[in-house]
Amino acid sequence: ARTLLNQEWTQVPIPKQHKEAMKPTVSNKILDAILRSPEIDEIIPNNTVKVGEEIRTNDGFILYIELSKAIEDNYNTQEIKTKAEQDEIRDWLISFMNKLVQIMHDDFSHFADVKRKSWSVSILVWKYYIMLSRVLRGRENWRDELTEILENTDFYDAEIKTAFSEYNRRKINTFVKEKEDEICTMLNRNPLS
Prior knowledge:
Blueprint: H1 2-9, H2 16-22, H3 26-36, H4 43-46, E1 48-49, H5 52-56, E2 62-63, H6 64-75, H7 83-109, H8 111-114, H9 126-136, H10 142-151, H11 158-165, H12 169-186
């Protein structure tokens, strides 16, 4: 009995990020379905981790809770009422992420080296990628448009890299909003559509 009590008393508290990832939110359900899907490129589930320490030890480059939050923010998941709506978003994000992996394969495959010089594999970069998915959703030529957008994105911009490295959410949110406006203008779309 004493061993059991000692074990319970010395357990490490569960990290907040891991607790957030375990909540049954709509965005977590969508992300879980994506990660379990046989349709998703293996780079995504194999490099998605639950706690920041795993990012620091290069066990992955996608922090589950940040990707889930990006999905929640961009797809207004609090308003989703049905499983069919969740499935539509899941299916779209799988298609989008597979194309994203195809375009960014070298960065994603060598993320440990790339993250030193580029923000393309930063923890918070999913705010940018998921914003792109929302803006491109429903467009006929979205694959070509995504390729063009990413080819014209300066992932080596020192100022943006610093904001991502320092996890400066205010600067990152401003950057993502500016990029959204710029991309929507390029695509002749209203940013809110």
